[in-house]
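Lab channel / #folding
Pinned by the channel admin:
"Please post every new chain as: sequence first, then the structure tokens as a reply. Keep commentary short and put observations after the output so the thread stays searchable."

First post following the new format, from NK:
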Amino acid sequence: MAPPLPGPLEHLAPLLSHYGYLAVGGVVLVEDFGIPAPGETMLIAAGVYAGAGELNVVAVGLIAFAAAVVGDNIGYLIGHFGGRAFVHRWGKYIFLTPQRFATAERFFTRHGGKIVTVARFIEGLRQANGIIAGTTGMHWLRFLAFNALGAALWVGLWVSLAYFAGTHINAVYDTIKRYEVYVLVALAVLVAAFVVRHLVRRRRQRREEQ
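Reply from TO:
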């Protein structure tokens, strides 16, 4: 028998009970090319079901990973071929206003591939990730590599946590969300340190060559 899902996951129980893996793949897929959908919540709910023996945890992980990668690549194609004009015209229907898009695009352009990976964990950027990569002209293979890495980390984290935490996942989720900002800031500082180190090395090499 399927376990009762706690709190905000409860509304996904009928969807998971009736459609199983199809629900997991479908919700994650549509969220990742820009349509507002509870992709992260679905991952957690599916992990809880897997922990109770209702679903296979490996199958949940693989399906969610494939759906996340494909969804972001659909978003990339939309951004690449539709461009900014398409986003400005239709983005408002998925809460991606021109102002939000411009802010995200500047941030994305400045940090490139690292953002493709980290964006998977940030609400709003996760949905617009592929579209922005396409409009900024990021090379597809580079996008694909960073996108796959982000999808693997994102799916692996939430499915594993839900699988082992079971119906206690609400407390775990709340704790992670509470400290998520600090973790992201720490990651940003670490990335910045690597960038500065790289620039200093390049400057030294140029001086030595001169």
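NK: The chain has a mean pLDDT of 79.
TO: also worth noting, The first helix runs from residue 13 to 19.
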